Amino acid sequence: MSIYEIGQWLQAHEYVAVWVEGIALIFIFGLDYMNRRDERRDKNEQHEETQKQLGILSKQANAAKEQADFALESLNLLESQAQEQQLRELWRVLPILDDVQSQVRYWLNLFDDNKWNAVNKASRLMPVDASSVWIQAGRQSNELWKEVRDAFRLVSKADYEIDRYYAEDRVTYRQDSLIKAAHVNLKNAEPMLTRIVNAFTVFEESERKMNAIREATERKDQ
């Protein structure tokens, strides 16, 4: 069939071309609708998946926040307990230092007035729990620890010398050189003890103020 004949046939059957074109348009619209429907379904699925992931992330974030809050609360509790313990330790150390200082001054007065023979026996200058003073001094500063060490060495020497002096029951046989040595050691130790007591008093006052502020803050938060 020639082109001319085809053209004549199409002109004679023009309605067929219209139907074919209509069917083609319907088919195209149908494909477009199905494509759009598939795209909406994919988008809905992606949206649901995104929502699930956001939900998981939100739960993880809440869990992390709860853990962080718990850790902070635990840290604050430990810090509060440490401050209270530090204050209690200072309250225990200060009486020890006061006792040492009182004993040193007592013996210095005896030595200065030449009345050491009016005493029949030695009294212990160094306390048994002196190590707690060293520990607390080391927590404050290395310089304070050294001064406590040096002062306690002098007091310990004087303690030994006084004890040896009074170990002899007969007064005439006692060695006055021991008293002189103890006198020198206590005179050197006394100003050091004064500085140490003052330093610990300042630390105690500071800790007490901080503890009062912390307790007031906790009451306000409650």
Q: How is the topology of this model organized?
A:
Layout: H1 3-12, H2 14-112, H3 131-140, H4 142-167, H5 176-221
Helix pairs in contact: 1-2, 2-5, 3-4, 4-5
Would you mind describing this structure in some detail?
The protein has a domain at 87-221. The radius of gyration is 47 Å and the shape is rod-shaped. The N and C termini lie far apart (101 Å). The protein is 86% helix and 0% strand. With 222 residues, the chain is mainly α. The chain has 5 helices and no strands.
**Mean model confidence by pLDDT:** 78
* Helical stretch tally: 5
Helix content: over 70%
Poorly predicted ranges (pLDDT <50, ≥5 residues)?
A: none
Q: What gap, in angstroms, lies between the N and C termini?
A: 101 Å
Would you list the SSEs in sequence order as H and E?
A: HHHHH
Largest sheet: none
Structural class: mainly alpha
The rounded Rg comes to 47 Å
Overall morphology: rod-shaped
Number of strands: 0
| Strand content bin | under 5%
Summary of the model, kept short:
It is built from 5 helices and no strands. It has helices spanning 3-12, 14-112, 131-140, 142-167, 176-221.
Which structural traits does this protein have?
222 residues, mainly alpha
